[in-house]
Amino acid sequence: MFWSYLGIFAFSSLRDAPVDESKITEDTPWFRKINLGENKYKNGLGILSVAIGTGSLAIIWMYTLKSVRFLILNKGGRHLTFVTYSPFGRNRIIKIPIENVCCKENRSNARVQLPLKVKNQWMHFMLDMRGEFRNPLLFDSTAGLMRRW
To answer: CA–CA separation, 83 vs 66, rounded Å?
Structure first.
């Protein structure tokens, strides 16, 4: 919201305030030498603000989609079900064959998060280490293995 407001403010409310060249010396700071109301600065500041806001929203959204809420080993032991958060409070459920999951770090060495890489997926899924591992030995021998593709 802040970055959107800043972008709208830059496009609509910045006024042209010419700089008096006679008052500029070598000791004048850089921000006193520029006219932010000039079209090139005004448009650039507006576009930059909207881009930062949109980029921040996209990164936060992607992080939310890759944070694992539950990791379930399905019956038969051939598939894992990733239950992840979504931005609007619903769960997202993904069923993946176990041979396509690679644990990038040993569970005992991970401090805050444990990254799980899924084949042909863009980012790592992140398991929170503060969570509960109901059967740590089963996790280490199935999803916790480092596989080479």
So the answer is: 10
Task: Give the C-alpha separation, 6 to 50, whole Å.
Answer: 8
Q: Taking the CA atoms of 102, 104, 107 and 112 in sequence, report the sign of the dihedral they define.
A: negative
35 has pLDDT over 80: no
Q: What is the Cα–Cα distance from 24 to 34, expressed in whole angstroms?
A: 11
In the sheet with 113-118, reading across from the earlier edge strand, the strands are 101-103, 113-118, 125-128
What is the pTM assigned to this prediction? Answer: 0.69
Q: Where are the domains of the chain?
A: 2-65, 68-141
Positions of E strands within the chain: 68-73, 79-85, 91-97, 101-103, 113-118, 125-128
Instruction: Show the tokens assigned to 57.
Output: 């929203």
The pLDDT assigned to 84 comes to 94
pLDDT tens digit sequence for 56-70: 999 988 888 999 999
Q: Residue 108: how many CA atoms within 13 Å on its side-chain side?
A: 3
Q: What pLDDT digit, counting tens, does each position of 72-82 carry?
A: 999 999 999 99
Rounded to whole angstroms, the Cα distance separating 110 from 133 reads: 13
The position carrying tokens 């480092």 is 146
